[in-house]
Specification:
The protein is an alpha+beta fold and about 170 residues long. The chain has helices at about 55-70, 85-95, 105-110, 120-125, 155-165; strands at about 15, 25-30, 35-40, 105, 140. About 30% of the residues lie in helices and about 10% in strands. Strands 1-2-3 form a 3-stranded antiparallel beta sheet, covered by helices on one side. Strands 4-5 form a two-stranded parallel ribbon.
Length: about 170
């Protein structure tokens, strides 16, 4: 169910919070956030492990609570994104998309210097290990259509996040 490479090793720190889109599990290596997973089919990647929080994860939990209440529009957290250079380029661009704004997959491709790499851009967006904080939900097709979402329960989760930010979209 959760098959990303960052899930192959046991995290140093784990915290879980309740949210309007289901339980969220945040992990950290002690210096940065390393993953954020949204509950899918009632499970999280490290459900079998006890929580082992840290000051950084407590800060992340507070900032996420503020985001869900609508009072926080940007995150001020260190993140450690592990992936290919192309993925890191795309993920870096995601952090530039502000609350309430969107970018199309094509625009991401152009900005990355690979205008014709639509499928690769979509794959990189879908492989984002830290959704919400690195806002991959703000990426839509050029016509405003939701083409998918790998977090939580998929498209319904993305719809909730877009609606929360007042972003127009076509489901």
């Amino acid at each position: 169910m959760f098959s990303r490479s960052y899930l192959d090793t046991q995290p140093a720190h784990i915290a879980r919070i309740d949210s309007p889109i289901g339980r969220i599990e945040i992990t950290s290596d002690g210096d940065a956030i390393t993953s954020l997973s949204i509950e899918r089919a009632g499970t999280l990647p490290f459900d079998e492990l006890p929580e082992n929080t840290s000051p950084l994860l407590e800060l992340a939990a507070r900032q996420l609570a503020e985001y869900f209440s609508g009072t926080r529009h940007t995150f001020e957290l260190p993140v450690a994104l592990v992936g290919t250079e192309f993925q890191k380029t795309i993920w870096s661009q995601l952090t530039d998309i502000e609350w309430g704004d969107v970018m199309s997959y094509g625009e991401l491709g152009i900005a990355s210097g690979r205008a014709t790499a639509g499928r690769a851009v979509g794959g990189a967006v879908g492989a984002n290990p830290i959704p919400i904080i690195v806002p991959c939900h703000r990426v839509l097709a050029a016509n405003g259509r939701i083409t998918g979402y790998s977090g939580g329960n998929g498209i319904p989760t993305k719809v909730w996040l877009l609606d929360h930010e007042g972003i127009e979209h076509v489901a």
